[in-house]
Each structure stands twice: as structure tokens, then as C-alpha cells.
Write a sequence for this structure.
């Protein structure tokens, strides 16, 4: 077998493989003879069909089967011989395919990038620290009460915190615009649901009022055609409702699955949940920051097959999250471009993380895995049953092991980086991170 390799562009390689005619012809002849022993053809006894007849009737198909197997096997052998790591299946093109002559084909494919990790000491990391204060706890409990609030119509002017039911229509330069109309919408004043000036303009309104609100869309408004535009909204106030908050009693606690609890026990449970949420948020922000720096310090090309596979995963996740339970929604209907940058980032992180693991010879810490399983189990009524389930389910245990290894990579990177401890509030700590935007801003600033 003869092999030649050409680097066509970036990670793409084109491998030309020549297989001796003898190997192909011998395999074809052997399979034709085997077929002659098994095939049934009218006029001939089983096992007595002449090879020539089998060759004439089935030879072409048999040769294609042989070539398919030879291509697969020889491609694998050639990749090993040339020390190449294909990142996906090859695109095969037959160049010479004639009985009695050497068989030649080309395989075009992408390889994994060669990675030499940069010194991570160059990474400057801000490690956020936060805690749950009594004020944070009080605010959270107040939020929980507001979620369970009961609304009742009132015959007075609307105040901040009241709910108004409204019909509205927006105009720019005297023309109505798409998306600027609503009917029977409930709006809580002070919720900042609408653009600045809209809700404050309804404070003092009473049922039956017609209001005209002059507002300006923010410069960074989600619809580009409305950014910075001055608009007039004509609003009809149908009614005004005020809320009454539930008492902090057992009836309220039961709504959160806490039967027979006192106020102090409820507060402890809420604080514990907040601390778990805070711990996870800080962990995720640190991880995203570290991985963002890892990408910044190690610019690598990513193989297209891996990106395409990740795009498929992101499409499926989007359908599950936003598809409204529609099992017939085809993920491939979602434009590839929506997920391409995120997919590239995920693939790059995955490749770099694997290189960190390899370079530092990291092994999964089983004690850490056990601790993570036990932590998960503590949120259930029968923790031991959950622990036993994890350890009897290989797939679920593998997921925990992957998370444990990811944590070990984070610790390895953090130990190598220049770290500044930064104290932030609970609210700032739990705000969702936007890693793609942050990475883009850092790149633009350079």
C-alpha cells in the first residue's frame, strides 16, 4: 500500500492511497467463490452454480463491497502509518478503479490541531467572593411572598408596585410600528418590564384613563430598527389592582414543600438554597473566566466535523428548551449560523481542556466524585437511595466524573494564574455570565 499526504489548507489533509491490484482481485475472487457455494439460481443445484455465472451476475456488486471494506481498512492503516488523527470521517473519491489494476483513491479529512499550551501564568483572573447577608435573605423572602401575592381591584390612582391592565399602541413619526401594540396586558409598575419612562408614566392613572406617553427606546434596544427612536404610546388603562402579601406562616411554607416548619426553619432552608445557588454561580463564573483566558492564550483552529456535531447538540438543546414540548419540531430547521460561534468556542475549550489534562497527567479524583454525588443526594428525602442509584448507573456516574475532572482542570489553571480576590454582592454574584460577549470584548480591546 502506497500513501502520500498533502496539507491542503489549515487542518485539512488529502491522503492518496494506492492498494495493489492483487489484494483487491484476490478478495473479489474469494467472495465470488463463496457466493457460488451459497447462491440459488434456477437450473443449478445448490453449491453447483458455475463461478463464471456468479461473476457475471454478482461480480460488480461484490467488487463494490470489497472496495468499501478496503477503503475503510486502508484509510485506518494509512492514518496510523502517517501518525494522523482524523477529526471526522473522510470524503472518499475513487481515482483508479479497474479490475486487474492497482486501486487508487483519495481521502479528504480534517485532523485534530497540534496544541502547545501557553504559560497560564500570563492569565490575570478576578476571583469573585460573596456571601448571603441577612439583608439578602430578607429580600429573597420578600420576593417569594410577592410571587405568591394575591391581586384585588382598587378604585384609586395607580402606585408603584400596583398592577395595571392596559391596551396600548406605539407610534414613531405618526406611524404605528410592528410589535408596538398590545391588548389586555397586565403590567406591574416598577417591574422595569417596559422601556424607561413607560411605567413611571402610568403612576397616578386610574381605571378608564387614556394616557399618552412620550418615551425613547434605549440605544442598545434588542430591535435595531427601534434603537434610539422617540415613540408615542397611546395607552388605555382598563383597571388597577393592588397586591396583598401572604403571611409568613405554615400555610405559606407548605407552598414550598416545607410542612410543619417554623419561621426560623423556613429562613434556614431559604438561606441554604441561596448559598447553594451562590456557590454554583461563583463556580460557573470562575470557570467561564478561566476558560475564556485559556482560549485567549491558545488560539487554535477547530475541526469542522467537531463544530458541526456541536451545532447539532445545540440545536437539539434549543428545541428541548424552547420548543414547547413539540416532539415533531426538526432541530435542523434552526439556522446553523445561530450556533456556530458558540459551537466553535465549546469545541476549542474541549480540546484545550483535554490538553491540560494530558499535560498535567490529571486523573479523576474518586473522593471528589463521591463528595459530589453525596452533595447531589442531600437535596432528596432518601439520600442513600440516590447515592446507590448513581453508583449503579454507569452513564450518570460518568457525568459526575466528567464534572469532577472539569473542577480539577479549573483548580490546575487557577493555581497557575495571577489571581485577584474581589468581593461582590450576592445579587452581582448570581447575575448570569455572558462568556461569549466577554471574550469578544477582550479581543476587541487588544
Amino acid at each position: 500500500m502506497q500513501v502520500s499526504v498533502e496539507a491542503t489548507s489549515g487542518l485539512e489533509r488529502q491522503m492518496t492511497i494506492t492498494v495493489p491490484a492483487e489484494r483487491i482481485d484476490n478478495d473479489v475472487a474469494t467472495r465470488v467463490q463463496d457466493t457460488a457455494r451459497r447462491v440459488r439460481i434456477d437450473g443449478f443445484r445448490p453449491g453447483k452454480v458455475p463461478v463464471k455465472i456468479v461473476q457475471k451476475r454478482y461480480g460488480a456488486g461484490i467488487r463494490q463491497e470489497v472496495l468499501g471494506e478496503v477503503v475503510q481498512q486502508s484509510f485506518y492503516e494509512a492514518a496510523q502509518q502517517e501518525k494522523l488523527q482524523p477529526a471526522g470521517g473522510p470524503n472518499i473519491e475513487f481515482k483508479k478503479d479497474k479490475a486487474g489494476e492497482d486501486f487508487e483513491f483519495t481521502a479528504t479529512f480534517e485532523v485534530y490541531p497540534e496544541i502547545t499550551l501557553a504559560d497560564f501564568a500570563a492569565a490575570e483572573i478576578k476571583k469573585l467572593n460573596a456571601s448571603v447577608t441577612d439583608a439578602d435573605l430578607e429580600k429573597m423572602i420578600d420576593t417569594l411572598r410577592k410571587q405568591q401575592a394575591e391581586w384585588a381591584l382598587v378604585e384609586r390612582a395607580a402606585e408603584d408596585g400596583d398592577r395595571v391592565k392596559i391596551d396600548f399602541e406605539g407610534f414613531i413619526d405618526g406611524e404605528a410600528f410592528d410589535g408596538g401594540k398590545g391588548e389586555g396586558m397586565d403590567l406591574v409598575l416598577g417591574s422595569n418590564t417596559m422601556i424607561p419612562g413607560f411605567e413611571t408614566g402610568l403612576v397616578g392613572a386610574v381605571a378608564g384613563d387614556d394616557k399618552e406617553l412620550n418615551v425613547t427606546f434605549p440605544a442598545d434596544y434588542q430591535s435595531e430598527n427601534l434603537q434610539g427612536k422617540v415613540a408615542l404610546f397611546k395607552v388605555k388603562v382598563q383597571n388597577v389592582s393592588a397586591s396583598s402579601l401572604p403571611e409568613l406562616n405554615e400555610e405559606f411554607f407548605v407552598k414550598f414543600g416545607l410542612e410543619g416548619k417554623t419561621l426560623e426553619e423556613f429562613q434556614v432552608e431559604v438561606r441554604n438554597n441561596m448559598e447553594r445557588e451562590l456557590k454554583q454561580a461563583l463556580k460557573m463564573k470562575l470557570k467561564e473566566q478561566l476558560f475564556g483566558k485559556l482560549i485567549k492564550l491558545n488560539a487554535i483552529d477547530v475541526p469542522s466535523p467537531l463544530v458541526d456535531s456541536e451545532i447539532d447538540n445545540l440545536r437539539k438543546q434549543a428545541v428541548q428548551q424552547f420548543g414547547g414540548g413539540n416532539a415533531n419540531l426538526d432541530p435542523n430547521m434552526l439556522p446553523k449560523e445561530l450556533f456556530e460561534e458558540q459551537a466553535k468556542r465549546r469545541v476549542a475549550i474541549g480540546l484545550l481542556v483535554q490538553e491540560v489534562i494530558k499535560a498535567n497527567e490529571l486523573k479523576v479524583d474518586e473522593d471528589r466524585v463521591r463528595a459530589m454525588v453525596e452533595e447531589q443526594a442531600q437535596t432528596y428525602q432518601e439520600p442513600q437511595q440516590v447515592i446507590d442509584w448513581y453508583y449503579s448507573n454507569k452513564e450518570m456516574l460518568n457525568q459526575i466524573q466528567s464534572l469532577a475532572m472539569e473542577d480539577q482542570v479549573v483548580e490546575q489553571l487557577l493555581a497557575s494564574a495571577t489571581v485577584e480576590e474581589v468581593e461582590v454582592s450576592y445579587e452581582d454574584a448570581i447575575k448570569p455570565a455572558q462568556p461569549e460577549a466577554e471574550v469578544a470584548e477582550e479581543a476587541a480591546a487588544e
About this structure: Residues 435-446 have pLDDT under 50 and may be disordered.
